[in-house]
Amino acid sequence: MVGSLRIGRVLGIPIEIHYTWVIVFGLITNTLATSYLSNYTLYTSPYINWIIGAIASFIFFICVTMHELMHSYTAIKLGLKIKRITLFMFGGIAEIEGEPKSAKEELLISIVGPVTSAFLALIFFLFSKIPFNPLSPIGGAILYLYRVNLILAGFNLIPAFPLDGGRVLRAILWMSLKNFRRATRISASIGMTFATMIMFLGFYILLFGQFITGLWFIFIGWFLSQGAMSGEREVDIREAFTDAKVKDLMSREIQSVPPNITVEDLVSNYFLVYRYVAFPVMWGDSILGIVTLNDVKKIPREEWKNYTVREIMTPISSDLTITPEESAFDAFLKINKGSVGRLLVMDEDRLIGIISKTDLIRFLQIKSMISG
Fold this sequence. Notes:
The protein is an alpha+beta fold. The chain has helices spanning 19-36, 46-77, 103-128, 137-156, 164-177, 180-207, 211-240, 246-249, 263-274, 293-297, 309-312, 328-337, 357-371, and strands spanning 4-10, 13-18, 81-88, 91-97, 278-283, 286-292, 314-315, 321-322, 342-347, 350-356.
């Protein structure tokens, strides 16, 4: 997710924080310190409530991370890959590469998150039974963590895609209908209806002057609607790419550039001559990376003669490559997550072709024209 900072790894999974998380962390801390914990007057210093509020807010986001980690751990055990977990303003999201291979796998991956949140709610509920001083903000913070985890579990179980409950519903429909696409369409439609209701509720709340709460509901509804639409669209695209492999759609005509020429030569002798927007960078038979027009645009024109291709190219990495036997849909997902707009097709260490977003979109357009 653009605007995210990696803070570490858990179970080998990268954990990232989006800048919007910092905003929400501050808002929750402020609400706890100035409102929720203000009735707990054991300590006269206002700083105590702020400290406890910040700690409770931090623990809550640890709970959100645990929710996503359980999704991820289950997915990994079922053979799926996890790219990262990102904490952001609406909680957390685990980026799972690919889809479950069966309805049972979808059900297991989806249900484990809310179950984790419910279990955490139970733990904090039991802690809340410790006989704290009734005026202690510590007891208030524990009660807050119990309630917020219970809400998190309950909200996620609402059968509206892309919430966990919506994915559970899709799994159940998938089992009964034996049709993944139809199950997705139904659960996504329910998700869109729920998202629209949330947004209308937000506008209704705005009319009564509760600006922040109203906006919050509108943003949540918008986020859910985007998730429902993208989920349905992804399934449609996946079906369009059925049986299509990278080798079927890639371009086999390869024009590479050497790493030691200047950007000025690159523009004059390659971009303007071949009229491609990207070139693989090679030294002999070794592939070093890829250079694009966007890389050139980052360098002031008067500096072109002072930079070489090696200095501005994107170095070779697994994010830039794909094998010819992989599915075209996997290439589509990988290209959309990257910034180069194309992938180098590698047969072991040998470059055999290039597949671009344009190649894939053209294929989708032709399939659409044929079918409709």
